[in-house]
CLUMA_CG001079, isoform A
Amino acid sequence: MKAVKFESTRGINQINCSKHFFCMQMLEKLSADNYKINIHVPVLGTFEHFELLNYSSPLSRPLANLITNAEYNVSILYDRRESPKEVEDELDRIFEIIDGDMDVIIKDFSRPILQKHEGNSFNVVFIHSNESLELFFSIVNSDKFTSQSFFFIVIPASFKIFINLETLFERFLNYGVPYVYTLTVAPNDEDAILHTYYPFSANKCSDSTPVIANYYTAKYENWTEADFFQFKVQKMFGCPLRVATFHFNPFMILKEDEDGKISVDGIEGSLLNVLSERMNFTIEIITSNDRWGIIFENGTTTGNVQMILNRTADISLGYFSVHDKRQKLMSSTSVYLISNLIWAVPPGEPYSPLEILLKPFEKSLWNWFFIVLISAFVIIRVLRMFPKKVQYFVFGRNVRHPVLNVVNIMLGGSLPKLPVRNFARTIMMLFMFYCFIMNNAYKGGLFQFMKSDQTKPPLSTTTQLYNKNFRFYSIPDGKIFLNETPKILDKTIFLNNPEEYDEGLKHLRDPKFKRALMITQEKLAFENIKNSPDVYYHRANDVIFRQHLVIYMNKFTIFEWSFEDIILQLVSGGFMDAWIKKFTDTDILKDRVEERELALTLDQLMGAFQLLGVGLFISFTVLVFENCLFNIKKCLKSNSDQFCENCEMK
């Protein structure tokens, strides 16, 4: 007897079968629920009442060998409406042959089956009629399978004469399913032949011609080739690969030569070139004005997404980031690059002439400087109220204007008369030493500052930009990310074409431009390298979002596995980092040569002239005030003298 264990979400049932039809009746009852069947087959001689079937099929042992050697969980699919008895007999013969324990999932694909999972990778499909074939084609492109699922289609001799293998393989090729094999009986009615197709060969592209992949010899009970699972798209023999992309520095740089042929460069362009070299395909560029494309709520699409879905293009790349909406419609490779989205901001506003003069010292230093200066004036004023003897002791006998001497020393001038007493000289030397340090520190700081850009630091955070009432520029796809920040979204202007985006980047050179532009960190570095030393674009320190870049393709494509292996090798080998450094390394920025002459300009020293003007205005005001005061005194004195004369006359 054979022990067959049926596993389901409702529990495990084990049934001992002495007759194959009893087991198959149980399968008939349970297979509609996609039961997992674990077959336990002990050594044949241990069964006292084991009974072999008195008939055999040329496909039983080849199939049993295939299932036993499968690297994945096996799913057996059949259309129970069309051929229940034939399939059940074949399955019973296969189970009798299998030696050992293994998991098998039996499914009736005329009924709804489970979503794709590990068990759907290796599929043995029984086809007995055109109706079954069409029914199977209706689900092969569904979410039950992937383009990398293996399909071994069992075609009995009775139906073989109605099947054109080339037409069959052509349909699978159009569906993007490469790993399809047909198992048929050999002309000698004893052996079995495994046919398949290879999409690319040395002489043909998109070829569906049937070729013999393996041959089972009944006499020796083995296959000619031990490996059934081989990659089919490792080499494309120069066949074209349609790539949906667009020019987007520095990721995808499109270059058109005199003959109109488009070549690619850039970070992702370099990746595409290596894929082309490794897989030996010819790059055929397809562009769209809608670039990445939009996925609308009603399911319609535009741009590169649309070209992938309607198979106008085979793959799409060019700063294509992972997103839930895209993942539902398309398949993608592993992430090969993580890019930061940042705000490019205008430079800081230039300092005013007075700010330039005050810039060498911080506010706290200026405060202490004026505290010392005012303290000196106050001390001098207080000492003026003391006797002359005390004033001579502190100021010196021959010093008549100590306030002017303080101002003179502070400005680096010399004294016409020096004090005689040691105490007065000591105070003067200490104050001169203090003024010497302050004076030279100010001059050095002012000189260094005038060699710089003389502009205020740019705004460095999104909060500062928002508080300064900035508006934000973004590409249309940016709305996907900005939905999480409604305050920023309300102030965002979406730029619909590259020309507007480039124009916005040019405006960022103006300090008065109150806009911030969403840009990739790599593109900003690339633009700085390209425009150095004339132009330098600034950035805020915040990272808005991190983009995970992938290659997108149709959910059913023949290229997924081949791309995946190569991309993982390139990432682990550091090639992506090298290409990023090549196009965005700011260490190789050209020296920003100072074009102005060494002579200072009027704008740089306008503050000094403004102070001079203020001083002249104050001097003129004092002069007018003194003249008025003198005339008033003179008038009052004249009136007083005249009044006295009149009094004497009386």
Residues 570 and 576 are 7 Å apart (CA to CA). Residues 1-37, 39-55, 590-597 have pLDDT under 50 and may be disordered.
